[in-house]
Write a structure and sequence with these properties.
Elements: E1 3-7, H1 13-26, H2 37-46, E2 50-56, E3 59-71, E4 76-86, H3 95-109, E5 114-117, H4 124-133, H5 148-155
Parallel strand pairs: 4-5
Antiparallel strand pairs: 1-2, 2-3, 3-4
Helix pairs in contact: 1-2
Length: about 160
């Protein structure tokens, strides 16, 4: 089994969309994906969407979508992992670990103070994997979101 990790380019838009759709289905949110292939291509070209893709024997099976943010407390950039997905049949084969190592190297190279992400409360296998890596839950913090009608009302 040969694992390859590489940065996504605009011509990978269909692959990114396919993996995002697979992640949404895994999370029982398959109907929530609104991104299109053209939208993914434009976002990749503009640098709004950053992604690493994982391939096993040339077949796309994993992705890590991320962006950079800034911490006012550390005074440094951070890397936020928006989505991490490995095809279920290839979990525990090293693909997810390789993706996260590559992200960590990128964060260090960019001078980031931290890498952060969200985990669904029911995803105990993911939590165990992250704990094995030395990650810990940011106790006391909750994710809040303004979207849809509420966002339109606030922004209108």
């Amino acid at each position: 089994m040969t694992i390859e990790i590489r940065a996504a380019a605009p011509e990978d838009a269909a692959t990114v969309l396919e993996l995002v759709t697979a992640l949404a289905a895994y999370e029982n949110e398959g109907d929530k994906v609104k991104m299109t292939e053209a939208g993914a291509r434009d976002a990749l070209a503009a640098g709004h969407l950053n992604a690493l893709l994982g391939f096993v024997d040339g077949r796309p099976v994993a992705m890590a979508l991320y962006f950079f943010n800034f911490s006012s407390w550390t005074g440094k950039r951070g890397l936020f992992l928006e989505d991490l997905f490995v095809s279920p049949e290839l979990r525990k084969q090293g693909v997810g670990l390789d993706l996260l190592k590559r992200l960590a190297r990128l964060a260090v190279a960019e001078g980031c103070a931290r890498v952060e992400w969200n985990v669904l409360d029911w995803n105990n296998s993911a939590k165990g994997f992250y704990e094995m890596l030395g990650a810990r839950q940011a106790a006391g913090w909750e994710t809040w979101r303004l979207e849809g009608e509420a966002l339109a009302r606030m922004g209108g």
